[in-house]
Amino acid sequence: VKNKTFVKLVLSNADFAFSFYKLVASEATDQNIFFSPISISASFAMLALGAKSATLTQILEGLAFNLKKTQEMEIHDNFCQLLHMLNRSDSEFQLSLGNALFIEETLKPVQKFLDDAKSFYESEVFSSDFNNSVGTENQINSYIEEKTNGKIVKLVENLDPLTAMVLVNYVFFRAHWEKPFSTLYTRQEDFFVDQKTSVKVDMMYRKGYYRNYFDEELSCWLVQIPYKGDVAALFVLPDEGKMKQVEDALLKKTVSKWEKFLQ
Fold this sequence. Notes:
The chain is of the alpha+beta class.
């Protein structure tokens, strides 16, 4: 990446992603964790367009930005670039990522905020009647169902009639493995939720070569499985009893090291 300020955004996003993961992991010790770091970062950065003074600082510093080294408008400009780069739809894969604001119809946000939210974050803005909570729930759910091609339905329910605004972010990703897995070899195996609990799930099987690396220092295997179109999934498998050790080491430098060895 040539743009130095753009690099700063990517690095800050990574810092936020890992610190957020560790916070959630410490509180949800017996649950699966699934989240999109860029969705959270982009959503709160967009909200920062309407904030000032202490609130503005808290939002941006909470997203791991060093405001002594990065100007606020640089952050918005770079998010605009990043979202434009990530949103892609072609024959190989589709990635759609976006925001929408559903605002109580009696509120009139400053026009500059609405304009900036659209120009930097491609956010759509809708007027909503939260007193009619069922109608607004249908409005939001229909929007998300359409944007995720029917994958996410009934995102919200039981909305409080006193709600002033709902900010939603969606991600839709569809891609094909570079080397497809045949469904003929799919079979049910035990997946271990923790040391005491296992569940039967469908497991894919395929014989072939994949880039892999064993991190002796952290006692974990890395496997990179490519999709068509210059995208790959990275799987990290800690040795038995080493999950906490691997989680504690999740930092930019660790992932950079893994990427180097997977080249």
